[in-house]
């Protein structure tokens, strides 16, 4: 009995010591947490990755500001609107754009990029390398040459893995592009349907992803559905070809299964974009729709776990 009391007393002492030690640990870690939160409070509204779907009228222009401070511009719309937007969202003193990506050389994606190459120090350009003889595209290629900008022809590996293909390209820690389309090296090649060789990228940051299919039409969309269904799922879909009925099939939406869709489109455009059929399809699937012609610029912000969408 006496021994039992002694044992109990010792056990109580051990328990007390354990509690004190643990409490110290608890406080120590709490302190660390508070420190981190305070650091973040220096910029409380900013999440780490910011992707702006810029309202450039009829066209696409997507500005990506990475957590490490890189600036990437995917397409530039037509005309000079993109310059105004960059002036609005980039610091005045920052004239460097680390990467410009051209999905395909149609004017509503390419036009504004010519001014961007002229006004900004662009460090690298990604394109498909397809042959296109518009004066704008030739000017774009000449500028890349004369300014000695690093240009890379980007195409996906797919099953055949052609020489020089890319599967994934890391931008920085925790952030990468999955290259989905085209699946062949188009350098020096002419194609009938330029829309269908749009570069299709999936941007992945932590657990979040954005599918960016340029102006892809149904022929290429069907090939991706057939051959790469496992890579299409994304939180946010930039709807292909400004919401044209020539893409965004039921099956495509089922595989991508986004919570939010962004339609980059000009008010009262000549093409009737976005198509009512596609709008209804998105609504039936319960997907939130963000249209640049109605809401203006649309910003998606992510900390790698959740995405916030607003029209700034
Ligand atoms: Zn377009």
UniProtKB/TrEMBL annotation:
Annotated InterPro entries: ComA-like_MBL, Competence_DNA_uptake, Metallo-B-lactamas, RibonucZ/Hydroxyglut_hydro
| Pfam families listed in its UniProt record | Lactamase_B (PF00753)
Q: Where are the transmembrane segments?
A: none
Q: Which domain of life is it from?
A: Bacteria
**Which part of the chain is the Metallo-beta-lactamase domain?**
58-267
CDD domains, per the entry:
ComA-like_MBL-fold (cd07731)
Please give the organism.
Answer: Candidatus Kuenenbacteria bacterium RIFCSPLOWO2_02_FULL_42_16
Name of this chain's protein: Metallo-beta-lactamase domain-containing protein
